[in-house]
Amino acid sequence: MSITNILKFEGFIFDMDGVIVDNYLFHLEAWGKFCEKYGLNYSKEDFAARYFGKPNADILQGLFQKEMSKSEIKNLGEEKEAIYRKIYEPSIKPLPGLKLFLTRLKEEDKKIAIASSAPQSNIDFVVKHTGIKQYIDVMVNGDMVTKGKPNPDIFLMASSMLGIKSHKCVVFEDSFSGIQAALNAGMHVVAVATTHNINEHDKNLEIIKDFNSFKKTS
Fold it and tell me: Do 148 and 154 form a contact (C-beta atoms < 8 A)?
């Protein structure tokens, strides 16, 4: 999709992990350390297949194989995320071309949201260390909705907070569950081939490797 075509949309909604930053391997490493501490079975392949793109509530209850209270989920989730942030901070950087793309969107008076299953602490961490705060109009985190991806709730909330109808929004997503959530919300989707390579994505989707893809057409 060219920059000309993408600018036909009014609302631009970005997932965070794998879209704003390519941090998948750092999350896997953090979950491995977390599971080791609690004596939980863990393999990268199984974890990725079962939990990628899911909120911490689903992941933690799956790993511990029991229902948990909101406070348990919050405390354990923050423990894991603190491990992740410590590991990732020295390496954090935005996806190539992202800042230039966000600058162009603001020049065109477009509205921009982050809609991520991550907790707000992680969103604040990424926004701060990538230097993109000035571009973001709305932030929606996983604690603000009852149902996680592939349910459309998080994207519907983002479009509502932006004040833009769903069909006038485009979502940038890397996970299959997130892509399905955006489609379920009635939004256009651009798949970002970070965590999954281009060949793994549905060929009917618009697919980009990074945001330099939008530099090709003025």
Answer: yes
Q: What is the pTM of this model?
A: 0.90
What is residue 216's predicted lDDT score, i.e. its pLDDT?
A: 58
Q: Please give the structure tokens belonging to residue 182.
A: 């955006």
List, in order, residues 6 or more apart from 162 with CB less than 8 Å away. 11, 13, 111, 113, 137, 138, 169
Residue 74 burial (C-beta neighbours within 10 Å; 0-12, 13-18, 19+): middle
Query: Omega into 94 within 30° of 0, i.e. cis?
Result: no
Q: Are 96 and 212 in contact (CB under 8 A)?
A: yes
Q: How far apart are CA 197 and CA 218, in angstroms?
A: 26
Residue 207 contacts residue 201 (beta carbons within 8 Å): yes
Share of the chain above pLDDT 90, in %: 81
Q: What average pLDDT score do residues 89-107 get?
A: 97
- What does the alpha-carbon distance between residue 133 and residue 136 come to, in Å, rounded to a whole number? 6
Q: Which residue has the tokens 């569950």?
A: 177
- 3-state helix, strand, coil split of the chain in percent (to 5) is 55, 10, 35
Q: How far is Cα 35 from Cα 13, in angstroms, rounded to an integer? A: 32
Reported as a pLDDT band with limits 50, 70 and 90, residue 218 is: very low
- Rounded to whole angstroms, the Cα distance separating 40 from 179 reads 29
Number of Cβ atoms within 10 Å of the Cβ of 156: 21
Beta bridge partners of 139: 114
The tokens 């603001």 sit on which residue? 106
